[in-house]
Amino acid sequence: MTPLIVLTLVLMWQCVLVGYAFVLAGNAADEGVRAGTAAPRGARQGACSEAGLKHLSGAWRDGASVRCGGSGFVTADVDLKVPVLFPGSIDFPVTVHGHAGAVEEVKD
């Protein structure tokens, strides 16, 4: 019975990591798009990437990619890799996608 209980706990923990990856990807996209809307068009990608990666720890940041774009309506897309059992170890060949968008701020 003990191996079955341990296996169940490991599977539940892996489900928690997948859910947490979705939360991190969504938050990174939100932070990136906020910074991107306030930045000038030439500096948008840099500001968006920096803000999107700012709150990710080193283990999550290694497999992350942040892309920003748009004119008038700014979007940010974040892809994170899902780790196996704990961040910093091997990753599943699955990426979690976060997307956010906001209207560009008017600059005088």
Rg (CA only):
17 Å
Helical stretch tally: 3
Binned, the helix content reads 40-55%
Note the beta-strand portion.
Answer: 25-35%
How are helices and strands ordered from N to C? Answer: HHHEEE
> How many strands?
3
User: What is the CA–CA distance across the termini?
Assistant: 68 Å
Shape: elongated
Instruction: Output mean pLDDT.
Output: 85
| Poorly predicted parts | none
Strand order of the largest sheet: 1-2-3
Largest sheet: 3 strands, antiparallel
Q: How would you classify the helix and strand content by structural class?
A: alpha+beta
Describe the protein.
The chain is α+β, with helices and mostly antiparallel strands and 108 residues long. The protein has three helices and three strands. The chain has helices at residues 2-38, 44-54, 58-61; strands at 65-69, 73-83, 91-103. A three-stranded antiparallel sheet has the order 1-2-3. The radius of gyration is 17 Å and the shape is elongated. The termini are far apart.
Features of the shown structure:
elongated, alpha+beta, 48% helix, three-stranded antiparallel beta sheet, 108 residues
Task: Give a short synopsis of this structure.
This protein is of the alpha+beta class and 108 residues long. The protein has helices at residues 2-38, 44-54, 58-61, and strands at 65-69, 73-83, 91-103. A hairpin with a 7-residue loop joins strand 2 and strand 3 (91-103).
